[in-house]
Design a protein that fits this description.
The complex is a heterodimer of chains A (439) and B (321).
Chain A lengths: L3 H4 L5 E8 L6 H11 L5 H13 L15 H6 L6 E6 L3 E7 L7 H9 L3 E7 L6 H12 L4 E7 L8 H17 L5 E5 L23 H7 L12 E8 L11 E5 L4 E3 L3 E5 L3 E9 L4 E2 L1 E3 L3 E6 L10 E3 L7 E10 L10 E6 L2 E9 L2 E3 L6 E3 L9 E12 L12 E5 L6 E7 L17
Parallel strand pairs in A: 1-3, 1-4, 4-5, 5-6
Antiparallel strand pairs in A: 2-3, 7-8, 7-15, 8-14, 9-13, 10-11, 10-15, 11-12, 11-14, 16-21, 16-23, 17-18, 17-22, 18-21, 19-20, 19-21, 22-23
Chain B lengths: L13 H4 L11 H19 L3 E4 L4 H14 L7 E6 L5 H13 L4 E5 H6 L16 H11 L3 E3 L16 E4 L27 E4 L7 H11 L10 E8 L2 E4 L12 E8 L10 E3 L5 H10 L4 H5 L9 H7 L4
Parallel strand pairs in B: 1-2, 1-4, 2-3, 4-6
Antiparallel strand pairs in B: 5-6, 7-8, 7-9, 9-10
Chain lengths: 439, 321
């Protein structure tokens, strides 16, 4: 090892996670508590919070102020956008996508969940599982976030009773099972008093599990991307054309999934040509092997035409298609309608497309379908059929979050209109309407 | 000190490819950050006509340049540098800037605040600080050179308003930033489309923290301007910070100059960048000091961020970074 070792005790990894919950559930306080108790809040930030709290006549520092950034939010006491926060323990770094929980901000939750490996869903112990909780669970399932944690907050307001916590955890677990979410962890917390967020709670000795932070530290990360089929979207062609490198031609990109080794037989899509990897260049250093999510440059044996937007794959080759079915979240204030012309951005490839059909909308709290909606409006989730001008090599989102996702963009003004996930949203178990479970 | 970028071939960096202990293939957090930043640089190079990298000579812009050089090896970086010169720069920083530009054959664009003051377009502020005056020269240079993507070194951990910044941040012809007009950013799909006259600010270091930047500087053996390390310097106290005496407007009557051993945590305009007392004269010592420090980077050293609780948000709306 190198000089790094003088500055950190061991290499640490990173967990990207998201929070979902509303301001009434105490989400800002929970995040503030996580930052504060993990010693991630620095003196001047805390002083600013203490000062602002005193100005408002509050007698204790309001930890929610650590995270509420924009003026409009402070005035309204709500959170209007995804905020990213950073903290670390000795064993792991955390990137938190802190997403607002209001119904009209579904798109923010989807945004935060799209890069998360774990979602913390927050409920108020007094209210239990409410429609919004179900909405959060559905979004976590839809975006296929690998891990979900239920944080039952405000336990101080229900006298720290185990029975209250157990009932909520059971109800949520049943619902999550129907969505196909594997293994939920549930933690009883009081963000305000600091129970089980970072420090174990003496007031809930009936709970033997890890605190929220202990759980965040223990969950496995970065697990599967390298184990999936190899997908390497070409971003940029590097051709120095210098005296030193007259013939160098490298395909620069980031491995979306899988691994590449020198000598691998690869297929270049959508053309379908096959060739061999003759060199891998890891940011200026030749290597024998690279894996997701590394950025690298690939050299190929044959002089074939490869450019930005092509996909280099190994093993089973996805069939390039022009007809796409996907589950989508609409993000734009202008509704999406059959006949709309859009640009579809998939990995590094952007193609023209037309909306052919909107077969149904999903009610996000019951998963019931509303057939043949007139349009797809902002924050609605539905199914879409698209036709593209050129073929795309897609995976289903269920198989690969990176090569199964896409954006729809307005060709006129560049607005990001819709976020798409190729294929069926849920496993067959969730196909039945969920109302029966929710009474 | 080593050169800015180690150009030797076969430079052994075992740690870059040594998997972490545990099952499967994993990346250390620095390698993951590096891979992500390089991906962002290449996206911009692939999708924009005329990008430029904002280069202040501060550590964040130096790390950005280092990543850009790595992203396009063995070819040259396919864009130039843009420096907004406040006229109150530290001489060490200008010297460093010129040396880097020469070493890598880069094209340098300069937007000069002094020019604007000399022409009477901008007026000197009573407090002598020029950081807020950078906005107009910057936005006019972007317009006149038709830059369509501008890389900035902003990090989301720096300040509350920046926590909500996108990696690709759309700006109108005035450079303005409307938090409600920013596009949702999902997965790692960046949408760089924009209308003529608009441009996109791109932040490749979005997910880095101050400590990450320093650890990366140590690992990559990146050279920094000397003021980042402890040295003796004549300073005076103003608004709770040690400022460097100079022609920009200090010290005033009643402000006593003294020689102290200090280092800078950020490098900006001389009038509002404060030094901290320090004996850290190597990267390792700086990192140890930062790891133990209980003050955020800006809180300790930037007078202009203390102007108001929402100062940064207001300035971003005007086109400042």
């Amino acid at each position: 090892m190198t000089a790094t070792m003088t500055t950190t005790t061991a290499p640490v990894d990173t967990l990207r996670f998201a929070t979902a919950g509303s301001v009434d559930d105490g989400k800002s306080t929970l995040v503030g508590r996580l930052l504060h108790d993990s010693k991630s809040v620095l003196t001047d930030q805390l002083e600013a919070v203490e000062h602002a709290s005193r100005n408002r006549g509050q007698d204790a520092p309001d930890l929610a102020l650590l995270t509420d950034g924009l003026r409009a939010e402070r005035e309204q006491g709500i959170t209007i956008d995804v905020a990213y926060r950073y903290f670390a323990t000795t064993s792991r770094r955390f990137i938190l996508a802190d997403t607002p929980g209001h119904v009209q901000y579904t798109r923010n939750m989807v945004t935060g969940a799209s890069t998360a490996e774990l979602t913390v869903i927050l409920v108020d112990a007094r209210n239990g599982v409410v429609e919004q909780t179900r909405r959060h669970a559905v979004i976590a399932a839809l975006l296929r976030v690998p891990h979900v944690v239920l944080a039952v907050n405000k336990m101080d307001l229900v006298d720290y009773r185990e029975s209250v916590f157990a009932a909520i955890a059971e109800e949520f677990g049943t619902f999550a099972n129907r969505l196909g979410i594997p293994g939920i962890a549930s933690v009883p917390v009081s963000a305000l008093a600091g129970d089980n967020v970072v420090e174990s709670s003496a007031r809930m000795d009936w709970y033997g599990g890890p605190t929220l932070l202990e759980h965040l530290q223990a969950v496995p990360v970065g697990s599967d991307a390298a184990a999936l089929g190899t997908r390497f979207p070409v971003q940029y062609v590097i051709r120095p054309r210098t005296a030193e490198h007259p013939d160098y031609r490298g395909y620069a990109g980031r491995l979306a999934s899988g691994a590449l080794r020198v000598g691998d037989r690869v297929t270049v899509l959508p053309a379908g040509l096959t060739t061999t990897v003759v060199g891998l260049d890891l940011l200026g250093e030749p290597v024998e092997e690279a894996w997701a999510p590394q950025s690298l440059t690939v050299s190929l044996a044959d002089d074939i035409d490869v450019s930005r937007g092509d996909l280099i794959v190994t093993g089973a080759v996805p069939e390039p298609v022009r007809d796409i079915e996907a589950t989508v979240t609409h993000l734009d204030e202008r509704p999406l309608r059959v006949g709309d012309h859009v640009l579809l951005k998939h990995t590094t490839r952007t193609v023209r497309a037309i909306v052919k059909d909107v077969p149904y909308l999903l009610d996000v709290s019951t998963l019931e379908r509303r057939e043949r909606p007139e349009a797809l409006r902002a924050n609605e989730i539905g199914h879409l059929v698209l036709r593209t001008a050129e073929p795309l090599a897609l995976d289903s989102y269920a198989a690969n979050r990176s090569t199964g996702s896409f954006l729809l963009i307005d060709p006129a003004d560049g607005t990001t209109r819709t976020a798409g996930m190729v294929g069926e949203a849920f496993s067959p178990a969730a196909k039945e309407p969920l109302r029966g479970v929710l009474t | 000190m080593t050169t800015v970028i180690d150009r030797s071939v076969g430079h052994e960096r075992q740690h870059a490819t040594a998997p972490l202990p545990g099952p499967g293939y994993r990346l250390s957090h620095l390698d993951a950050l590096e891979a992500e930043s390089v991906h962002i640089f290449r996206e911009v190079a692939g999708e924009f006509e005329n990008p430029v990298l904002l280069f202040s000579g501060g550590k964040d812009s130096i790390v950005m340049l280092h990543l850009a050089l790595k992203a396009f090896r063995p070819a040259a970086v396919p864009f130039g540098l843009l420096h907004v010169d406040t006229g109150h720069n530290f001489p060490e920083v200008l010297e460093y800037r010129d040396r880097v530009v020469a070493a890598h054959g880069l094209r340098l664009h300069v937007a000069s605040v002094q020019d604007y003051i000399d022409r009477g377009v901008l007026r000197e502020r009573p407090d002598g600080t020029r950081n807020p005056l950078q906005t107009l020269p910057l936005t006019e240079k972007i317009q006149s050179q038709r830059f369509d993507a501008v890389f900035g070194g902003g990090r989301r951990d720096e300040e509350k308003a920046r926590a909500k910044e996108r990696v690709f941040s759309l700006r109108d012809e005035f450079g303005g930033w409307d938090p409600r007009r920013q596009r949702p950013e999902l997965w790692n799909l960046y949408n760089g489309r924009h209308a003529p006259g608009e441009h996109v600010r791109v932040f490749p270091l979005s997910n880095w923290t101050e400590l990450d930047v320093w650890q990366y500087i140590a690992r990559e053996e990146i050279e920094l301007p000397s003021l980042y390390f402890a040295h003796r310097r004549k300073v005076f106290r103003r608004a709770g910070m040690w400022l460097t005496a100079g022609g920009w407007g200090g010290p005033r009557a009643g402000e006593a100059v003294e020689a102290r051993r200090v280092r800078y945590r950020t490098v900006g305009d001389m009038s509002c960048t404060g030094a901290v007392d320090s004996d850290a004269d190597t990267v390792e010592k700086v990192i140890a000091e930062i790891a133990a420090s209980r003050l955020t980077e800006r809180g300790a050293t930037r007078a202009d961020d203390k102007l108001s609780e929402a100062a940064m948000e207001d300035r971003k709306r005007e086109g400042y970074f």
